[in-house]
Design goal:
alpha+beta, eight-stranded mixed β-sheet, 22 helices, 23 strands
């Protein structure tokens, strides 16, 4: 029902517009009449009003016939006198005459008195000065008038009079002339708007030059609207030189036709034959040079060729646009409609010029508006199609980038696993103090490199919109304590106090959140605080802020007493791969991605991070976010680190060397390892050597295979208790091998653990879906391998 109502509204609006233009076009001009169709004509003579008797003895000649016939000895250049009598005119009102533009200069006498003049009529080229302009003049208030007209032409290829004059009440004539001028101004304004729209469209859609070529058509037609026809420009600027305006008028004509071909060529998917397009380009370029370099009489004589070319262009354009529409109507429909409007406008203009056809006043404006409207729609359709292509390309590029980063992550993690693993094994041997320092430096550098790789991968996922949050019940208080413990070691090494300022009333507060990503944000903020603080303290605080709908509003702040920042440096903080100062990466290291990732993760959670800093006074990062609040629970409450009255508590403790178990070496009180048959499916020889060495140190004799097919064959030959399976291997990958093993031997026959450099959460999910029961990302620590073996013993004991 609403669609019908909308259609009815559109029809009524269109009807109102049409009636408006019809009313505008219907110039009543009560009592209007044409001047006599024949005048006395004396060639090569200018009779004065005192010689009017001789003028009226000259033979009669059709008034609106151009020169160049037998009356003018076949010449278009020269001078002549026209004479006629108007008899029986009404005297009860002021009459006037509308004199259209001519290809001449003229002077009009009424009863011996000059009443109108356009230019200066001379007897030769030297003293003749033409002017093109349509005017309305008063006639004497008498019932009979003798009109004597002097006409001279020495510059144009067409001389004489081509359009009839109109006699009517002078008020109506002036109103009609004013309406015509206003209509031309309106049309010119439309073209100016079209020029601006096309330029703006090109700026938004620079892949296509069509808007610029169509803007060229608008420029040419704009000038033709005000500088030809009724010559509105000559009314506004009467002192413009005729030689300049004549050349501009013809330049605009050929400009329109040339740009027409360029527009059709691009609008119709370059369907214009090359030879035809090349001919049109050369032809219009030559005509432009001719107009600028030759006399007016010469280049105006070439106009019939230009008109023939315009007519041919319209016919060929119709053929090409029709073919284009038949080939792809969905893309061509608006272009076809715009061409139809352009063809109507060009056809009407051609008829007006050739046959003095008087088109309805509304035809040209409607055709122009339709033309601009449909061209704009066509460009929008093309732009949307281009955006779809660009979107597909961008998605392919994003996918390629993700695949590249995943591949690079795998390729880097695999050798780094060997570097860190062998470094760990080397650290377990008897080393001197100097050697142990070197080994620790290697291990620290490798760990930093893995951190950088993780940052790049995280940023890539967040930037591509592929990062998702996992929600689960968490104790916010406990997550902050655990996160603080992760950076406590770095704080101890720098002699800093790590302070927790947590509201004890929030100890049991439970929310629905992603603990991993929350911890990642806080770890980034606290690690930065420790990195840029040389002395003093780093404080982590938690407080509740108002939240709507029963949600929990958390304000988590990290405050340091470090170097601080200027406002300009704060403005660069969250930009990707940027540091607050260019010297920071050289002095402190880092990729500049940590804060960018934290900001994106905070926004993904629906929160935000704000910064307050001053040079020398430290920095405070505040993360504010709302969580879904759950009933308070006691989930493995951590040791109470805060006193009853919300006081700051220091986590700084004397630095300790890591225990043997933390380094991967069994401590004296570590549980005994069970006896197991272990298979290692790993294609990289260094990683084979590494894990094999670790397991042999613990008393195992693992079997080694290089791909998934060999792993399937090995378990078919003999049973295994535990398989460490790489994901990416030649011939058969780890996922395929796992599925086949589960298919042949069931899920409980062997425990399969992924040991892979594919470290993304999606990789973990894929491994679990294939039938694996554990996941270890490279580079791994010995303790992770050991824990898997101990977990196997616990599961076996339960079974």
């Amino acid at each position: 029902m609403s669609r019908r109502r909308a259609n009815l509204t559109r029809r009524l609006a269109l009807s109102a517009v049409c009636h408006f233009f019809f009313a505008w076009a219907g110039l009543s001009q009560a009592g209007a009449q044409q001047v006599p169709l024949e005048w006395h004509f004396a060639w090569d003579t200018l009779y004065s009003p005192q010689q009017s008797a001789s003028a009226f003895e000259a033979p009669l000649r059709p008034y609106t016939m151009l020169w160049g016939d037998a009356f003018t000895e076949g010449r278009s250049e020269g001078k002549a006198t026209y004479a006629t009598r108007l008899i029986g005119l009404p005297v009860d009102g002021q009459l006037g005459v509308h004199i259209p533009d001519m290809y001449t200069s003229y002077r009009l006498f009424a009863n011996g008195v000059v009443i109108a003049q356009n230019g200066e009529v001379g007897t030769g080229p030297q003293d003749n000065h033409p002017k093109w302009r349509g005017i309305v003049v008063d006639l004497p208030r008498t019932d009979s008038i003798e009109l004597v007209l002097h006409v001279a032409n020495y510059v144009h290829s067409r001389g004489g009079i081509s359009r009839a004059w109109t006699i009517a009440p002078v008020g109506e004539l002036r109103a009609s002339h004013l309406r015509t001028s206003a209509l031309n101004g309106f049309v010119a304004g439309i073209y100016v708007l079209g020029i601006l729209i096309m330029i703006g469209t090109y700026r938004l859609y620079p892949q296509s030059s069509l808007p610029l070529w169509f803007a060229g058509i608008c420029v040419g037609t704009f000038y033709r609207t005000i500088g030809a026809g009724t010559y509105l420009l000559h009314d506004l600027l009467p002192t413009l030189p005729f030689t300049v305006t004549a050349r501009l008028e013809y330049l605009a004509y050929y400009l329109i036709c040339g740009f027409y071909w360029e527009t059709v060529h691009r609008m119709c998917d370059r369907c214009v034959p090359r030879r035809l397009l090349r001919f049109q380009r050369v032809y219009h370029l030559i005509m432009g040079v001719v107009i600028l370099a030759t006399p007016i009489s010469f280049f105006t004589s070439l106009l019939p060729f230009g008109q023939a070319n315009l007519m041919l262009s319209l016919i060929l354009g119709i053929v090409m646009v029709t073919r284009w529409a038949n080939r792809d109507w969905a893309r061509a429909r608006f272009g076809v409609l715009s061409f139809a409007a352009l063809a109507v406008m060009a056809g009407v203009t051609l008829l007006q010029h050739l046959y003095d056809y008087q088109a309805l006043a509304w035809m040209i404006p409607v055709a122009i508006i339709a033309q601009l409207f449909f061209v704009y729609l066509h460009l929008n359709v093309a732009a949307v199609g281009n955006l779809r292509v660009l979107r597909d390309v961008a998605e392919e590029a994003s996918q390629a980038k993700s695949e590249f980063l995943a591949t690079m992550s795998h390729e880097i993690r695999t050798p780094m696993n060997g570097v860190l693993g062998m470094t760990s094994l080397l650290a377990d041997t008897g080393l001197t103090a100097e050697q142990r320092q070197y080994v620790d430096t290697i291990r620290m550098s490798g760990t930093n490199l893995i951190t950088i790789i993780n940052d790049i991968l995280d940023f890539s996922k967040v930037d591509a919109g592929q990062m998702s949050l996992e929600h689960q019940p968490i104790q916010l208080y406990r997550v902050l304590q655990d996160t603080a413990s992760l950076v406590a070691g770095n704080a101890r090494q720098k002699g800093l106090s790590l302070v927790l300022s947590l509201d004890p009333a929030l100890r049991a507060t439970t929310v629905n959140a992603d603990p991993t990503r929350l911890s990642q944000i806080l770890t980034n903020l606290m690690s930065n605080a420790v990195k840029f603080t040389d002395r003093g303290s780093v404080t982590l605080s938690l407080s509740e802020i108002p939240a709507a709908g029963g949600r929990f509003g958390a304000s988590i702040a990290v405050t340091d007493t470090g170097i601080g920042m200027t406002e300009a440096q704060v403005g660069k903080l969250f930009k990707s791969f940027a540091q607050a100062d260019a010297t920071i990466s050289r002095r402190f290291g880092g990729t500049g991605l940590g804060l960018a990732i934290s900001k994106k993760l905070a926004e993904l959670m629906g929160g935000y991070i704000k910064v307050r800093s001053a040079v020398g006074d430290g920095t405070t990062f505040t993360f504010e976010v709302e969580f879904e609040r759950l009933p308070d629970l006691t989930l493995d409450a951590a040791p109470d680190l805060a006193p009853e009255a919300r006081e700051a508590v220091s986590l700084l403790a004397p630095a300790r060397r890591p225990t043997a178990d933390q380094c991967g070496v069994p401590a004296p009180d570590s549980p005994a390892l069970p006896s197991l048959r272990i298979l290692i499916a790993e294609d990289h020889p260094v990683n084979q050597q590494l894990i094999g060495t670790i397991l042999r140190k613990w008393g195992y004799e693992p079997d080694l295979v290089g791909n998934g097919l060999e792993a399937i064959d090995a378990i078919d030959r003999q049973p295994y208790d535990l398989i460490f399976m790489d994901m990416q291997m030649p011939e058969c990958d780890g996922l395929t091998a796992t599925r086949e093993i589960r298919k042949r031997h069931g899920r409980s026959s062997v425990r399969i653990i992924a040991l892979t450099a594919n470290a993304q959460p999606s990789d973990r999910e894929a491994c679990m879906a294939a039938g694996m029961q554990g996941f270890i990302a490279k580079p791994f620590r010995q303790q992770e391998i050991r824990q898997v073996i101990l977990d196997f013993a616990e599961v076996s004991a339960v079974v």
